[in-house]
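B., you asked whether I could sanity-check this one before it goes into the benchmark set. Here's the sequence:
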Amino acid sequence: MAEFRKIPVIIDAVQYTEYGCSVNGMCNSQSCYTSGNSNPHIHTIHGNQIVNLEVGDWIIPEPDGVHFYPCKPEIFNSIYEKV
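And here's what the prediction gave me:
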């Protein structure tokens, strides 16, 4: 086993702060809503998986710039610091 250090990177992130408020990265596709997923959600790079959002979650773009992933506030605050 070997030890590794995470390479420091600067990310753009937005926090989902209010139910019903649309933010960058959040899905607004009519096809998702008509297929039954009306909860606030995002699509990840992993098989276009749908992940529901909760108020307070941070939304971080994947390297492809098309998909996003959520991060709980406690984890986000332990990993990232404001630049």
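One thing to flag: Helices lie at 30-34, 73-79. Otherwise nothing jumped out at me.
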